[in-house]
Amino acid sequence: METITDVFFDLDHTLWDFERNSALAFAAIFEKHAIQVPLDEFLTHYVPINLKYWNWYRDEKVTREQLRYGRFKDAFDLAGYAIDRDTIDLLSDDYIAHLPIYNHLFDGTIALLDYLKPKYRLHIITNGFSEVQRRKIDNANIGHYFTTITDSEMAGVKKPNPIIFEYALTAAQADRKTSIMIGDCIDADVRGALGCGIDAILFTDAQTQTDPYIKQISHLSDLKNYL
Question: What SUPFAM superfamilies is this protein classified in (predicted)?
Answer without folding.
Answer: HAD-like
